Amino acid sequence: MLLLNPGPVTLSERVRKSLLQTDLCHREPEFFDLQDEARRRLVAAYELDPAKWSAVLMTGSGTAAVESMIAGLVPEGGRLLVVENGVYGDRVAQIAQQYGIEYEVAKYEWMQAPDIDAIVRLLDTKKFTNVAIIHHETTTGRLNAIDALSRACAQRGVGLLLDAVSSFGAEAIDFDGGGIAAIAATANKCLHGVPGAAFVIARRDALAQAASRNYYLGIARLAKLQDARNTPFTPSVHAYYALVEALREFEEEGGWRARHARYAKLAEQVRAGLAALGMESALPPEESSVVLRAYRLPAGVTYETLHDALKAKGFVIYAGQGGLSKELFRISTMGALDANDMDRLISSFVELLR
Ligand SMILES: *Cc1c(COP(=O)(O)O)cnc(C)c1O
C-alpha cells in the first residue's frame, strides 16, 4: 500500500528495518547517543548554528510539538496573533485558548492567502509578543509566504512561531530573516520517519524566556535535560531509531533542497496527469507547496467512491477537511515514492474514470 495522505508516509526499507534494532533502555548512554544524533542532525538540516538554535525532541505527533511551542514560547503575560487560513491555524488558536494565552486571530478564508501587509499593520497598532502562522497549510496545500512577515517580526522584536509540520525538510524556511523564534515539526512527514517523535527547533534566547504552562510538553525542561544528555520521561525509543535513520538518509540524498526538487517533480507529474483527465488543482501550482496538492473531485464522483477504488489498487488518498470534504481530495507526494508509482496512480485514475 502506498500512502498519499499527509503523513504518516510510506517508509523506505532502510527506515523500516531501523525499527528492528536492539532493545534499548532510555537511561543508557546508547539512547543518549541516539538523542544527541537526532538533535544534531535536525539543527543541521537547515544549516543552523547550534550555539543559537536548539532542537527539542518530544514523544507525540506533530500537534504535540505545536502545543509545546505555543504554550512554552509565548512568554508569561505575552500576546499572540494567530494567522488562520485553514484547519491547522484554527488548531493553534484552540491551543492558545486552552492554555489561557491572550490571543487574537487574523482570519482568512480557507482558500485564501493571508494578507501579510494587513498583519504587519496589526503588529504596529496593537502590542503582540508573538505571531503564529502555518507554513504549509495542509488543509488546502497552500504554502503561506512567510519571508516578509519574518522580517517585519524581526524589526519589531516579535517572535514568529511557525507550524512547519508539513514543510520542514522539503520547503525553504526563512531562518535568516531573523523573525523566527521557533518552528514545530514531526518525524513522520517530509523527514520520512515514523509517527511518535516530534520536535521544536527554537532559538536559545527564546527558550531562556519560556513560560511554564504545561507539564509533559514543557519545552524549557525538555531542552535543559536533553542538553545534559537526559530525558524526563520514557521517549518513543523506536521512533527515535527511525528518525535518526531517516535523517541519515535525508542527508545522503542531498537534504531539503534535493527533497524539494524530488517532491516538485512528483507533484507536477500528478498535476499534469490529473489535469489531462479534467481534474483541476484547487490552487495554482505557484501558490502550493511541493508536498501536497488539493484537487477538485470530478463531477458525479464522491470522495468515498474515489478513495475506495484507489485503495483497491494500492493507493491511499486523503479527503478534504471540514467544509471542503465534498469538493476536494488531496494527494501528498511525501515518503518513499517515485515516478513509476505516480504513473501507476494516474493509470488507476484513467481506468477508474472510464
Ligand atoms: C500534520 C500536521 C500537523 C500535526 O498533525 P498530527 O496529526 O498531530 O501529526 C500540524 N500542522 C500541520 C500543518 C500539519 O500538516
Automatic annotation (TrEMBL):
Keywords: Aminotransferase, Pyridoxal phosphate, Pyruvate, Transferase. Substrate binds at R330. InterPro entries: Aminotrans_V_dom, NH2EtPonate_pyrv_transaminase, PyrdxlP-dep_Trfase, PyrdxlP-dep_Trfase_major, PyrdxlP-dep_Trfase_small, SP_NH2Trfase/AEP_transaminase. The keyword Transferase applies. It catalyses: (2-aminoethyl)phosphonate + pyruvate = phosphonoacetaldehyde + L-alanine. Its EC number is 2.6.1.37. The modification N6-(pyridoxal phosphate)lysine is found at K189. Gene3D superfamilies: Aspartate Aminotransferase, domain 1 (3.90.1150.10), Type I PLP-dependent aspartate aminotransferase-like (Major domain) (3.40.640.10). Pfam families: Aminotran_5 (PF00266). Residues 51-321 form the Aminotransferase class V domain. Its cofactor is pyridoxal 5'-phosphate. SUPFAM superfamilies: PLP-dependent transferases. GO terms for molecular function: 2-aminoethylphosphonate-pyruvate transaminase activity. It is an enzyme of class 2 (transferase). The keyword Protein biosynthesis does not apply. It comes from the Bacteria. GO terms for biological process: organic phosphonate catabolic process. NCBIfam families: PhnW-AepZ. Homodimer. Belongs to the class-V pyridoxal-phosphate-dependent aminotransferase family. PhnW subfamily. Involved in phosphonate degradation. This is 2-aminoethylphosphonate--pyruvate transaminase. It comes from Caballeronia insecticola.
